[in-house]
Design brief:
The chain has 230 residues and is an alpha/beta fold. It has helices spanning 44-62, 88-103, 112-123, 167-177, 185-194, 213-225; strands spanning 3-9, 13-20, 25-32, 69-77, 107-111, 132-138, 141-150, 153-162, 209-210. The protein folds into 2 domains: 3-123, 2-Layer Sandwich (Nucleotidyltransferase, domain 5); 167-225, ATPase, nucleotide binding domain (Nucleotidyltransferase, domain 5). Helices cover 35% and strands 29% of the residues. It is globular and about 60 Å long.
């Protein structure tokens, strides 16, 4: 049975997966990038260094599944735009083209954003080829998107995005201020579930976009003064 390899070296996870020709997942491996305690993220050079170390480890674990690979898909850029670029994605792209040259198979380049959309379509295959709306929320992204099709290619247009920081950045910055480990989503959620008081976060109302810098300033001030709740 033919198999296809997918590689993604995004901002905070090195990952790869193998699918067979029926669309079933044959295997996957991932390594979350390491961030020092108290830090709120990594520079692109630090990401590139860790991806370069992680990817051979991941591919070695998947090596029993790579015998009949017929094609390789890879995230080569954040968005499918001429100005969309991050060095972290070059690690996966370089590995994909190197493997493809050795195995004599084609490479299919995607944007990280398209991968989020297509991952959702695996759960809703009836939407394939039809226009739909999507909210893309990750550590550094918060977009409301319009997804249409040009033949087999997805055309994505941004309808709303963040004016300053995203919800993911808000969560991580507040979590680090509380002494949690980055990325802070899981630990902050557990802290909230174990809490016995309700803390009201102020909201920013900005027409046509999201905004979290104002709420972050207020919450950071309360954390610094020890006022975790009212």
């Amino acid at each position: 049975m033919a198999r296809f390899l997918g590689i993604d070296t995004s901002c905070y996870t090195t990952s790869a997966a193998v699918y067979d020709s029926s669309g079933e997942l044959a295997g996957e491996e991932r390594i979350v990038l390491s961030v020092k305690e108290g830090n709120r993220g990594l520079s692109q050079s630090q990401m590139v260094f860790q991806h370069t170390k992680n990817l051979p480890v991941i591919l070695q674990k998947l090596s029993p599944l790579l015998q009949d690979i017929k094609g390789i898909g890879v995230s080569s850029f954040p968005r499918r735009r001429a100005d969309s670029y991050m060095p972290a994605f070059l690690v996966g792209k370089g590995a994909a083209f190197s493997l493809a040259a050795a195995l004599h198979v084609p490479v299919f380049e995607f944007s990280h954003q398209e991968n989020h959309a297509m991952a959702a379509l695996r759960k809703e295959p009836s939407l394939w080829g039809k226009p739909f709306y999507m909210m893309h929320m990750s550590g550094g992204t918060q977009d409301v998107l319009s997804c249409t099709w040009e033949g087999e290619f997805m055309e994505i247009k941004t309808l709303m995005d963040s004016r300053d920081i995203t919800a993911g950045q808000f969560i991580d910055r507040i979590g680090v201020a509380l002494g949690l480990h980055f990325p802070c989503g899981k630990e902050l959620e557990k802290l909230a579930l174990d809490g016995r008081h309700i803390y009201h976060i102020p909201r920013s109302s900005v027409k046509g976009s999201f905004s979290f810098s104002g709420p972050e300033t207020k919450v950071q001030r309360d954390i610094a003064s020890g006022q975790y709740h009212k």
